[in-house]
Design a protein that fits this description.
- The chain has 248 residues and is an alpha/beta fold.
- 32% of the residues lie in helices and 20% in strands.
- The protein has one domain: Alpha-Beta Barrel (TIM Barrel), CATH 3.20.20.190.
- Strand 1, helix 1 and strand 2 form a beta-alpha-beta unit.
- Helix 9 crosses helix 10.
């Protein structure tokens, strides 16, 4: 599956309706968006904990109301074409999803968001297989699976290599973490992770996903290694690069 990272974020303002709409037009199988809980209990789609990078004005999302956040322009930084774009609610993002397509929701807040998140998923009308939650926070994954074991959830993790060549986290640590929080799989950064780690994860029955891949050569490698999805800023380019050649 081709997953559009924050929508088609190379061409449109990230985590906005224009970016998600463009991703669907470019043939993405799924979108990925980042979600925070506001001070008044709404879930909004924005990556950072504050609005400075995308809006110029600095509001902390967790300390701000939805009404105040919606006054900000989060499209103007990408040009006149997107001027007036607002931070979308999770319901507005859900409404863009065509039948049969999917969403990967990265939870940026802590586990307190889970009741509201499950309520919004329930109201969305989306099928269970269309929705997955992803998070770096193991407490978020654990809390989600405790309340809604049927909901798919992936733990996010990067990998690092020290001067001796040792990679952390180790495969053993990854597998222990996935088992402890009852995650359905691992989603990792493309760097450092090895084919052996990926194989080790999948051999234990877990899904493997990768981010953020913007070149076709790397995408082909991870596809060959068995990645269930490839998250990218350029879904159109990766879709074209991974499509089988046309028949003569």
């Amino acid at each position: 599956m081709i997953v559009a990272h924050r929508g088609a974020s190379r061409e449109a303002p990230e985590n906005t309706i224009p970016a998600f709409t463009l991703a669907w037009e470019q043939g993405a199988d799924a979108i990925e968006g980042d979600f925070h809980l506001t001070a008044d209990g709404h879930i909004v789609c924005i990556h950072d904990k504050d609005t400075k990078r995308v809006a110029g004005k600095n509001l902390v999302v967790a300390k701000s109301s939805l009404a105040d956040l919606r006054k900000l322009d989060v499209g103007a930084y990408r040009g006149e074409k997107y001027k007036g774009t607002v931070i979308p609610t999770i319901a507005e993002v859900f409404a863009t999803i065509p039948a049969g397509r999917k969403i990967y929701m990265e939870v940026k807040s802590n586990e307190s968001i889970i009741p509201d998140l499950l309520r919004e998923i329930g109201k969305s009308g989306l099928r269970q297989e269309q929705v997955a939650v992803i998070s770096f926070h193991t407490k978020v994954i654990g809390a989600l699976k405790a309340r809604a074991p049927q909901c798919r959830a992936m733990w996010l993790s990067g990998f690092k290599k020290d001067r001796s060549g040792k990679i952390t986290p180790s495969l053993e640590t990854v597998l222990k973490t996935l088992k402890r929080v009852k995650a359905d799989g691992l989603s990792s950064a493309k760097d450092v992770v090895t084919q052996d780690i990926i194989k080790g994860v999948m051999d234990k029955g877990y899904e493997y996903h990768v981010w953020t891949v913007d070149d076709v050569k790397t995408a082909r490698r991870f596809k060959a290694w068995g990645a269930k999805s490839i998250t990218t800023n350029v879904p159109g380019r990766i879709r074209k690069g991974l499509s089988p050649p046309a028949a003569p």
